[in-house]
Amino acid sequence: MVFLEDFYIPLLITHLVVTFLLIGSMTHHLLCLKDYVRGRFQRERLELSYLRVAFWSYLVVYALGALIYPAYRVYIRHNHFDPSLPWATGLFETKEHWGALGLALICAYYLLRRSFRPSEEKEKLYLYVPLGLLLNVIVGYKVVIGCWLTSLKGSW
C-alpha cells in the first residue's frame, strides 16, 4: 500500500483544476506587467490580486503534486516509464526541478511585489518584470509537460 494510493485520482484531478487557476492567474498577471512596461499603472491592485491567486495556487499545486508523487513513483514511473519510456522519467524530473526553482522564485517574487508600488518605484520594475516573465515560462513549461506526460500514462 502506497501513501494516499486510494486518493490518487481525486488528488490528480484537483491538481489539474488548481493548475488551470494558476495558469490563468499567471497569464492575467503577465498582461498587467505588459502595461507596466508601457508606463501604465492603472491596474496595480488588480495585478497584485492576480499575483496573490498565482502565489497561493502555486503552493497548492506544489503540495498536491507532492501528495500524489509516491503513488506516481510506484505505479506510473516504476511500472511504465522506467522500463519502456526512460526519457519520460528524465523529462518529469526536469519538470520537477524547474518546479522547485519556481517555488522559490514565486515566494521571492510575491515578497518583492508586496514591498513596493510599481507606479512610485519604477526602478524595481527592471527586476520585477523579467522575473514575472520567467515565472510564466516555468509555469507554462510545467503545464505543457505535465499534461503531455499524463496523456502518456496518467493512472494505473
What would you note in describing this structure?
With 156 residues, the protein is mostly helical. It has one domain (5-153). The protein has 4 helices and no strands. It has helices at 8-37, 44-84, 86-114, 125-153. Helix 1 runs antiparallel to helix 4 (125-153), helix 2 (44-84) runs antiparallel to helix 3 and helix 3 packs antiparallel against helix 4 (125-153). The mean pLDDT is 93.
Q: For the report, how would you describe the main beta sheet?
A: none
Tell me the count of domains.
1
Whole-Å distance between the termini? 14 Å
Round the mean pLDDT to the nearest integer and report it.
Answer: 93
Low-confidence stretches: none
β-strand percent reads: under 5%
Task: Give Rg in angstroms.
Answer: 18 Å
Overall body shape: elongated
Count every helix, treating DSSP H or I runs of 4 or more residues as helices: 4
Order of helices and strands: HHHH
Roughly what percent helix? over 70%
Assembly state: single chain
Q: How many β-strands, per DSSP?
A: 0
The secondary structure category is mainly alpha
Concise synopsis of the structure shown:
The protein has four helices and no strands. It is mainly alpha-helical and 156 residues long.
